[in-house]
Amino acid sequence: MWRLARVLCAALLVGSMAAPAGALEAGTAVDPGDHDQAGAPEARAAEARHERGRRLYDGLCYFCHGYAGDARTLAATLLNPPPRDFTAPPELDAARVIAALRDGRPGSAMTSFGARLDDEAMAVLADYVVREFVQRRARRSRYHSVENGWPDHDRHAAAYPFADGRIGLDAPVEALDAGQRAGRALFLSACISCHDRSRQDDPGPAWQPRPLSYPRPGFEPGQHAVTASGQPLDAVSTPSIYARHDRAPVIPGLTRREREGEALFQANCAFCHGADATGRNWIGQFMEPPARDLTALSAAAKAPRHLRQVIRDGLVGTSMPAWREVFTRAQVEAVVAYLGRRLNPAR
Ligand code: HEC
Ligand code: HEC
Ligand code: HEC
């Protein structure tokens, strides 16, 4: 967004100097501070080089050192030592920036950029840092500057500590004074959409074993669904399209072994293939590759010899497990027998 604002700025200046229209189309970046020299080819080349430095900087460095080079970033509140504020003394020169880029700073988050930047890019970047932050003290590099389309942003100063991490967003509200509370409220309403990573002193567990929210086997809205307060959810009356695949079909006249196979199938296979073996249940549809619709297998794949082998060995490269070590031989035979009935209803 700020890039756009800058281009607009340049456009206005170029316009007021009545430059040839081609200058803009050629994408000449004219620095508002240097517009009096913009005509000279060397000055333009220098400016193009400076803008290259800016792109490198905005891509690789702003995260810690800030767009404005003053290291007022969230990262600065988390790192020890904090990133260098380029606008503070002692004054940096290009050689020192290059040394930092090449070697990094031991014991700090400033790692070497030697693998990512060649000598020329390091020189361009170093000159940018020195010119922009040490010599020019360019305010417009700040994100929320007038030039970037944020007039009088300092009126939001109460919210700054939450944006730059000086106060954790989870700091106890009782510990905040009235101004800080107002700043927190402002931050939550107007800033958090972009500053989503504000500091939290206790971010909580990185992972919580919360159940995912998807319909459980047998779930039928209208019948089982309840609101948080325990009221039935009558509004939802159509059963989930997945629910009917979570019900085992009734197959009359199963032998004892087939019934044993049915129980094994429902306990071990239905989770992926659906209770009706179609794989059209919720989980089955979301697997990659999806669980196979066993009712649609070819005659060859339904053959007991093939089923026995697939169940024992699994399918390598898919989530179809090998059951060799889980089931006894007799149990594999029971599942094969059950599938024989389930997959060949006419028999
Ligand atoms: C992950 C955070 C991080 C990033 C990204 C980062 N730096 Fe740093 N930088 C630091 C820290 C931390 C220090 C302070 C090290 C210290 O105090 O020794 C530092 C220090 C410096 C210094 C001061 C060296 C000196 O001699 O005092 C320069 C110059 C510098 N960085 C330039 C850059 C440039 C240019 C980039 C982008 C290519 C960059 N940094 C990217 C964290 C970072
Ligand atoms: C549209 C997105 C966006 C919104 C909304 C936004 N910010 Fe920012 N803000 C940014 C970006 C991007 C940066 C630059 C980040 C950096 O330098 O690390 C930034 C930087 C800052 C900085 C560091 C100094 C500077 O200007 O670079 C402060 C302080 C800040 N924002 C405060 C706020 C406050 C307070 C609000 C709400 C009133 C707010 N921001 C709303 C995107 C936003
Ligand atoms: C963790 C999920 C999962 C479980 C549990 C599972 N399967 Fe599978 N199964 C799959 C997937 C996925 C495929 C399809 C792989 C593909 O398309 O390549 C598959 C394929 C199959 C096939 C087709 C083989 C072929 O050659 O086409 C059969 C038969 C089969 N499973 C039977 C079973 C039986 C019987 C059980 C229980 C003992 C079972 N599966 C348990 C995921 C599972």
Written overview of the protein:
- The protein is mostly helical.
- It has four domains: 2-141, Cytochrome Bc1 Complex, Chain D, domain 2, CATH 1.10.760; 153-191, no CATH class; 213-241, no CATH class; 248-343, Cytochrome Bc1 Complex, Chain D, domain 2, CATH 1.10.760.
- Residues 1-36 and 233-238 have low confidence and may be disordered.
- It contains 15 helices and no strands.
- Helix 3 (41-60) packs across helix 7.
- Helix content is 42%, strand content 0%.
- The protein has helices at 2-16, 21-25, 41-60, 62-65, 74-78, 94-103, 119-135, 160-163, 178-191, 256-268, 270-273, 282-286, 299-302, 304-313, 329-343.
- It is elongated, with a radius of gyration of 33 Å.
- One heme C binds at residues 268-269, 271-273, 287, 289, 291-292, 294, 297, 301, 307, 310-311, 315, 318-321, 323, 335.
- One heme C binds at residues 62, 66-68, 72-73, 142-144, 156, 159-160, 163-164, 186, 190-191, 193-195.
- Keywords: Electron transport, Heme, Iron, Metal-binding, Signal, Transport.
- It comes from Leptothrix discophora.
- Residues 48-133, 256-343 form the Cytochrome c domain.
- Residues 1-23 form the signal peptide.
- InterPro entries: Cyt_c-like_dom, Cyt_c-like_dom_sf, Cytochrome_c550/c551-like.
